[in-house]
């Protein structure tokens, strides 16, 4: 197939590229095989040899953009999305999260319904790749993996590992039982797609220690060894909230970063969510390990007394992507996460300026005397929601280049209002893209493709 029109991507953090009137071709496996201006000799030659029914024309004012990546989402918590956000984190887990996860483990039909609707909502909102936390029961997570494969989304599915719990009925009895279950889950997840060619395998298992308060040292050590043996990715939560950080200090006598580090679970194949209570020195340690961060600004507003020091993490070379953190965050839309990421970063920068101007630097607060800004802009947030997330997941997508999977979403003008320009008669501009970024919604999304296969039609 061939696609002709305007394309937009952010291959680098602060640089948005607009490719006007380009021709993109995909091969039979869904990889990009050609990407050049439509006026080049090769593009014209390819077009002359193809029938019209194999050429998709992107309308003026519309453009193709890489799909979004959601680095942190609790799939079973989609059951109660948008409710229960009034409690501190540790109380919220007991009152809402554990109950919902246990309920799905007990009811496979409900799990299928919840996961099917979740997948449909992800497609509707342009999410093409997602890192999912599941439950502790193998079979329920296999339902999740199989559902995402059927819908056509790239899904990294994590069976929870937790041998400590405040809910007696929702726990794995021993670390040995937990590790055996994880090994089985890895094998069974891979078996789900073993009959398919490599390019059609969209699901992968992920090692998922919930977080330090629910995992014994023996379990974490075993998961670290399993990560080395299998090469499977790791996901968890790190330094998320004040009560969680305090609980780890009291029970382990050190930070949760130190606990993960000792278990060899901080690697270049690890994604840690939140990281709002990390020091500058700890950011440096994460960078040395190559560990990525899933920034979840919306859920941090509810469950953490502070936000991720995003600019510092980026400046230290840490790979950062965005997460919706359903149901700690109420929106499954990565665009919401992008907008919140910009907003909270601007507030952080304003607080920095207030400290400098008021000479109110707290002891040990290095950011207050840092003259560099802490804000991020919409272009940087777009990078985090597309290419940044793809890099964290080890995917080649997030850009339009020869040899990478064609994972794209089509943006139309939809409900956007243009008063000073005729969007159907002028070149696509950064201002037009910014308007979509700020006020666009699902009505602007008119198509979506994963590995060259269209999964959304409007």
Automatic annotation (TrEMBL):
Cellular component per GO, a single term: cytosol
Domain Amidohydrolase-related: 63-407
UniProt GO molecular function: guanine deaminase activity; zinc ion binding
Keywords per UniProt: Hydrolase, Metal-binding, Zinc
Record-level GO BP terms: guanine metabolic process
Requisite cofactors: Zn(2+)
PANTHER family: GUANINE DEAMINASE
UniProt-recorded name of the protein: Metallo-dependent hydrolase
């Amino acid at each position: 197939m061939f696609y002709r029109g305007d394309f937009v991507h952010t291959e680098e953090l602060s640089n948005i590229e607009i490719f006007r009137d380009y021709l993109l071709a995909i091969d039979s496996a869904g990889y990009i095989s050609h990407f050049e201006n439509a006026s080049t000799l090769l593009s014209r030659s390819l077009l002359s040899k193809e029938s019209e029914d194999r050429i998709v024309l992107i309308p003026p004012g519309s453009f193709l953009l890489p799909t979004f990546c959601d680095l942190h989402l609790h799939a079973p918590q989609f059951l109660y999305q948008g409710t229960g956000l009034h409690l501190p984190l540790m109380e919220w887990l007991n009152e809402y999260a554990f109950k919902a996860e246990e309920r799905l483990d007990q009811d496979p039909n409900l799990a299928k319904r919840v996961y099917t609707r979740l997948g449909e909502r992800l497609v509707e909102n342009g999410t093409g790749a997602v890192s999912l936390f599941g439950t502790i029961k193998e079979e329920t997570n296999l339902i999740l993996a199989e559902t995402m494969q059927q819908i056509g989304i790239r899904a990294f599915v994590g069976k929870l590992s937790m041998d400590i719990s405040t809910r007696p009925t929702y726990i794995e009895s021993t670390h040995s039982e937990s590790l055996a279950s994880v090994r089985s889950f890895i094998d069974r997840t891979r078996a789900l797609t073993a009959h398919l060619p490599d390019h059609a395998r969209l699901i992968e298992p992920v090692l998922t220690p919930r977080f330090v308060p629910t995992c014994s040292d023996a379990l974490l050590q075993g998961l670290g060894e399993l990560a080395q043996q299998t090469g499977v990715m790791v996901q968890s939560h790190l330094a998320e909230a004040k009560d969680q950080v305090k609980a780890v200090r009291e029970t382990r006598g050190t930070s949760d970063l130190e606990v993960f580090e000792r278990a060899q679970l901080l690697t270049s194949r690890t994604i840690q969510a939140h990281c709002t209570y990390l020091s500058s020195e700890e950011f440096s340690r994460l960078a040395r390990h190559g560990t990525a961060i899933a920034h979840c600004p919306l859920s941090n507003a509810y469950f953490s007394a502070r936000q991720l020091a995003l600019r510092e993490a980026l400046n230290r070379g840490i790979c950062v992507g965005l997460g919706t953190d359903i149901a700690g965050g109420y929106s499954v839309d990565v665009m919401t996460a992008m907008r919140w990421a910009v907003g909270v970063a601007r507030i952080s920068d304003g607080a920095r300026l207030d400290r400098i101007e008021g000479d109110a630097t707290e002891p040990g607060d290095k950011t207050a005397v840092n003259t560099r800004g802490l804000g991020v802009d919409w272009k940087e947030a777009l990078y985090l929601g597309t290419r940044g997330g793809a890099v964290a997941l080890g995917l080649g997508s997030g850009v339009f280049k020869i040899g990478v999977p064609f994972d794209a979403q089509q943006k139309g003008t939809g409900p956007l209002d243009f008063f000073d320009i005729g969007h159907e008669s002028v070149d696509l501009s950064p201002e037009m893209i910014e308007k979509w970024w700020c006020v666009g919604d699902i009505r602007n999304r008119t198509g979506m493709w994963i590995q060259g296969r269209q999964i959304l039609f409007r």
